[in-house]
Specification:
about 190 residues, nucleotide-binding, alpha/beta, 6 helices, Rossmann fold, 5-stranded parallel β-sheet, ATP-binding, hydrolase, DEAD_box_RNA_helicase
Length: about 190
């Protein structure tokens, strides 16, 4: 979906950074926004998203309300919200002002109860789209490697970001250079 914008909601601030790193390792332009970032860093990330510098905004519920984001093509609930009303605020980020949009929720067996509460609140059953095993297996190795590298990066930078810390952009750019060096070393072996 070239030119499209997506917001991906996670439950934790740490998950925003991790998922941003994973997606960047896969060649996608993603940037995190969460409550552990200073207001200026959050605004910087938001402006990069709105300007089209990054097409994927990985966020916590800090971005589900009150932000002026006029055009979002897709909302992905990477983590189902524990509060059903938060679901409405999240998916309300797409399909505004007569535009079309898509909302996708990834649900595991531990989140089923929250999912059922959401269906009860909105008064309808949401359509299911089970994962196709063949398609998942095609991407598994690539995604697993991207996750491994993201975990390494987080470990290298000391794990959690400090309160008011960066948007991860500087760290990610620095890290992408480190990653390239590591891949070259692996290829030589």
């Amino acid at each position: 979906m070239s030119g499209s914008t997506s917001m991906v909601f996670t439950r934790t601030c740490d998950a925003t950074l991790f998922l941003s790193l994973v997606l960047r390792n896969l060649g996608l332009r993603a940037i995190p926004i969460n409550g552990h970032m200073s207001q200026s860093k959050r605004l910087g990330a938001l402006n990069k998203f709105k300007a089209g510098e990054c097409s994927i905004l990985i966020c916590t519920d800090v971005a589900s309300r009150g932000l002026d984001i006029p055009s979002v093509d897709m909302v992905i609930n990477y983590d189902i919200p524990t509060n059903s009303k938060d679901y409405i605020h999240r998916v309300g980020r797409t399909a505004r002002a007569g535009r079309s949009g898509v909302a996708i929720s990834l649900v595991n067996q531990y989140e089923l109860e929250w999912y059922l509460q959401i269906e009860k609140l909105i008064g309808k059953k949401l359509p299911e789209f089970p994962a196709q095993e063949e398609e998942v297996l095609l991407l598994l190795e690539r995604v697993s490697e991207a996750k491994r590298i993201a975990h390494m990066k987080i470990k290298e930078t000391g794990g959690k970001k400090r309160k008011g810390g960066g948007d991860g952009e500087e760290d990610m750019e620095k890290y992408l250079g480190i990653k390239d060096k590591k891949f070259r070393k692996l290829k030589k072996k």
